[in-house]
Amino acid sequence: MPTKEEVYEALRTVEDPELGMDIVELGLLYDVEVDAANVKVTHSLTSMGCPAGAMIDEGIRDAAGSVPGVEHVDVELVWDPAWTPERMSDDAKFILGFG
User: Fold this and answer.
1) Total count of domains within the chain
2) Angle at CA 65, nearest 5°, toward 91 and 44?
3) With 90 as the cut, is the pLDDT of residue 25 above it?
4) Which domain holds residue 67?
5) pTM across the whole model
6) Average pLDDT over all residues of the chain
7) Which residue, 5, 50, 2, is CA-closest to 26?
């Protein structure tokens, strides 16, 4: 059975192409739930009009689906709570000039 940590690590390969950083460092990944071979990933985007949304969604499905034992991936895009730069890792904030 896949673990939450394995899925989380796989999601580090999913980049926001506009910012050139992965969704974990950017704080866009909100939750990962693993129920046997089923995975649910909850995430947000930097804005509602993010043109990379479909690309990120596909990346999440591919990355989570590549974890051994994962048979189904459900991706949920949420806007509450809204993403803010405070959700980013310290490294991402430094690289992108947010502190």
Assistant:
1) 1
2) 45
3) yes
4) 4-81
5) 0.93
6) 95
7) 50
Confidence (pLDDT) at 44 = 97
CATH number at residue 70: 3.30.300.130
Tokens linked to 16? 């926001």
Confirm whether 98 is domain-assigned.
Answer: no
pLDDT digits (tens, 9 = 90+) for 3-19: 999 999 999 999 999 89
Token pair in block for residue 51 = 């043109």
Secondary structure of the chain in the HEC alphabet?
CCCHHHHHHHHHHCEECCCCEECCCCCCEEEEEEECCEEEEEECCCCCCCCCHHHHHHHHHHHHHCCCCCCEEEEEECCCCCCCHHHCCHHHHHHHCCC
Encode pLDDT of 60-69 as tens digits: 999 999 999 9
For residue 87, tell me if it sits in a domain: no
**Distance from C-alpha of 59 to C-alpha of 89, rounded to nearest angstrom:** 20
- Residue 91 covered by a domain: no
